Amino acid sequence: MTPRYIHFVRHGQGYHDLYNDQTIHDPNLTPHGRKECEHLRDIFPYHDRVQLVCASPIRRTIQTALIAFDPYLQNGKRQILAIPRGQESSSQPSNTGHSPCALKAEFGDLVDLSRVDEDWNSKEGLWAPDWHSLDLRARELRLLLRAREEQEIVVVSHGNFLHHITGNIDDRGEQTGGDWKNAEFRTYYFDPPDHEDALIRETEESYKARSADGPSEEMHRGK
């Protein structure tokens, strides 16, 4: 059964954001970033409907998921599902993650790392930062999400790559749909539900909440 809604989330402020320094390797959230995630936790209206929380295996996205979606974890039997296809676009140190062993040592059983292979942070092949690889990875992620049985899913990812996932990129390669703020969420559904590229569209409630005129149509043009 196709999921009803996907809530995409950008992580809170990381130290690379604070210092505008992309050479910091896989930075943590700053104290302010943690407060942003706590605020998201407090205002997110769908905690009781969420059946799965996923995150890019980058530290700041995992930390965002653990803080903002703590209610999902409260019964002690759930984990954050790490999804390498959700990692950020570039190959800069700030967007290159740690090994599965290092992540396991840091996050323990709070995160399901079963889908994180040793080469996930190689930034080569499927993980490369070129345009073709990014679009392919975004499409594969949407297909993976659509194949899930859960009806309401959260995906914590990154500002640049979220434009690829949601199709907010025009024919010139320019990002559309407005920048993603730290710890912002937007809600999407599959439309049409059976398209070969797993196209998604932002809900009216979501785009009105951020004062947008309407959903971006780049993904659906010519489809």
Count of beta strands: 7
DSSP helical segment count = 8
The percent range for helix content is 25-40%
Largest sheet: 7 strands, mixed
Instruction: Estimate the mean pLDDT confidence.
Output: 94
Shape, per Cα inertia axes: globular
The largest sheet has its strands arranged as 4-3-2-5-1-6-7
- List segments where confidence is low: pLDDT < 50 over at least 5 consecutive residues: none
Whole-Å distance between the termini? 23 Å
Return Rg in Å. 16 Å
Sheet/helix structural class: alpha/beta
If you had to describe this structure to a student in words, what would you say it looks like?
There is one protein chain. By secondary structure, this protein is α/β, with parallel strands linked by helices. The protein contains eight helices and seven strands, in the order βααβααβαβαβαββα. A seven-stranded mixed beta sheet has the order 4-3-2-5-1-6-7. Helix 2 packs across helix 3 and helix 6 crosses helix 7. The protein is globular, with a radius of gyration of 16 Å. The mean pLDDT is 94.
